[in-house]
Amino acid sequence: MASITRACSASSPLSSRSKSRLYAGPGFAASTTGDMAITMSDVEAKLLDHYLTHTCHIISFDEQDHLPLHVGIPELAMRCRPLMDSVLALAAACECCDIIDGATGNVKTLGVEQTDRILELLTFSERRHGDSLRGVQSLISDPDSRASVLANAALITIYGSASHQIRLWLFKATRRCRSDPLPYIYRPYLVQWIYLFKSVYLACNGLQDTVYGPDTPTSTILSHSSQVEPLPIIVQPSTITSHSLFEVMVTTWDHALESLSARAELVLTAEPSSHAHTCSQALRALDSLAAQLFSVNDPLPFMTMRKDSVSPLDVSPLAQISRVPSWLHMYLARATCQAPSIPLRRTRTVMAFVNRVPADYLTLVETSLNYINAPELDDVGSSKSQSTSSYQLAMDILAHWLVFVMLLDGLWWIGETGPWELELVISVVRTKDWGADLIEEEGEWWPEEMLMIRDTRQRMSSGTRNWDLD
Question: Which residue intervals make up region (Disordered) (predicted)?
C-alpha cells in the first residue's frame, strides 16, 4: 500500500501549524485554575471536538461513565498536556474506526482517500500516544498530578485496544491487496495491547506505593450533574448473553475447564515452579471470570461465587491513593471490576482477567511467543523441561480467555481482536507441535472448537456482526 509510506512522512496534513485556544463545549465547565489553557492546532481542536461530541459517548456504558469521560477527564486535560495527548490519540483512533465501520460496516468498500485518512489518523494518534507516555513520566512523582496520571492510564487502556483493532484492519487489507508488508510501526502484536489494558491497574499500584505529604482538598467538578447534557444513546446496550456463541460456551465450558485444570495439575505435580504457580493463579482468575459471566440470572453473581474462586472485590488500591477526586476513584474501580457495577458489566468482567492475573503471567506469555517464533528453538516443543511445560500451560490458558474476548466483537475498540489473536495462537501452537498435549485430533481443543463454530456461524449469516453490547 503506497499510502502507508506517505503517511510515515513528516509532511502529513495533520501537522498543521495554525493554532486556536481550547474551548469549552456544551455542558463542559472550563477551569481557570492551574496552568493556562492548552494551545492547540486546528486539527487538534477538531479532534477534541470529535471526542466531546462523539467518542466519549460511545465508550460510556451509562451515565456513571459519561460524567467522568465527558466532563471530568477533559477538564483535567485542559491543564495537563500529556493527558490531552491521550484524549486526542483516542479521538483519532475513534475516527479511524468510524471510517472503517462506515455506514454499512463493509470495510472492503473503502477507497484510497479513506485509507489514506486512516493511515494519517493512526500516525497522528501514535505520535500523540508516544508523547503522552513520555510526558506522564515527569508527573508520576508529583502528588498533585495523580488524578491526571490515573485518567491518562484509563484512556490508554481503550486506546491500546482501538489502535490494535486498526492495525488488524490494515494487516488484513494489506494481505487482501497482496501489497508490500506493513511497516513495523503498523503491525499488530499479540501481547502489546494486553499490557496497555493493564496500565490502569499498574498505575494504581504504583501510586499507592508512593509516600506523599498531607492531603489537600480535591476538586468536585462533577457535583452539578444537572448541568451536563444527558447521555446520547448511540446503541441501546444489552447483554453479551445474546451473542450467537454464548449459549454454546455455557454448555461446553465445564468440560473445557475440567480438561484445562487436569493439564494444569499435571504440570504443577510433575514440575512445581514459580512459573507453574503463576499459571495456576491465572487459571483461578479465568475460572472466576467464567463463574461471574455465566451467572446470568444474578445481577451481582460475584456475591455467590465458589470460595476457591478469585474475588473481584479485593480491597481496591484506589482506596489508598489520596488527592484523587471521588468521581475518578469510582470510575476506575468500576472500569477495572474492583467495585460492583449494577447491572454487572460483563464486558468489563472479561477484560478484568488482565488485571487479575499476576504480571509474571503476561511475561510468561510473551516469553512463550518468543520461544515459538524462534527458528533455533524448533525442538523446544518436544522437550519436557519445566519451563516448556509452563509456557505451554500459559498459552493454553490464554487461548481459553481469548474465546471470551470473542464475545466482545460488537465493541468498536475490540472488534475482531479476539478471533484474530486466537487464530494466531492456534496457528503457532500447531506449527511448533506445542499442541500435542492439548489436541489429539482436529476440533478437540475447546478454544479451537469455539473458533470453528464462530467462523461457521459467521459464514452462515453472511458476515453479519453482532452489535449487542454489555
Answer: 1-20
Q: What is the sign of the dihedral through the CA atoms of 260, 265, 267 and 270?
A: negative
Give residue 256's pLDDT: 95
User: How many separate domains does the chain show?
Assistant: 2
Q: What is the pTM of this model?
A: 0.79
pLDDT in tens, 299-312: 433 333 333 433 33
First-to-final CA distance of the chain: 36
Question: Is pLDDT of 391 > 60?
Answer: yes
| Predicted local confidence at residue 221, as pLDDT | 46
Question: Are residues 208 and 259 both part of a single domain?
Answer: no
User: How far, rounded to the nearest angstrom, does the alpha carbon of residue 122 sit from its chain's CA centroid?
Assistant: 17
Residue pointed to by grid coordinates 484512556: 155
Range of 378's domain? 240-299+343-460
Q: What is the pLDDT, as a whole number, of residue 309?
A: 38
pLDDT on residue 12: 35
pLDDT score at 437: 58
Judgement on whether residues 211 and 287 belong to the same structural domain of the protein = no
Return the pLDDT at 435.
57
Q: Supply the Cα-derived Rg of the chain in whole angstroms.
A: 22
Arithmetic mean of pLDDT, 258-286: 92
Confirm whether 275 is domain-assigned.
yes
Q: How far apart are CA 160 and CA 363, in angstroms?
A: 18
Whether 124 contacts 77, CB under 8 Å: no
Q: What is the mean pLDDT of residues 45-50?
A: 96
- Please give the pLDDT value at position 167: 92
Could you tell me if 30 and 160 lie in one domain? yes
| Centroid of chain to Cα 187 | 17
Nine cell digits for residue 270: 510433575
On whether residue 227 sits in a domain, the answer given is no
**325 within some domain:** no
Given a contact cutoff of 8 angstroms between Cβ atoms, the answer to whether 346 and 238 are in contact is: no
Q: How many CA atoms lie within 13 A of 341 on its CB side?
A: 24
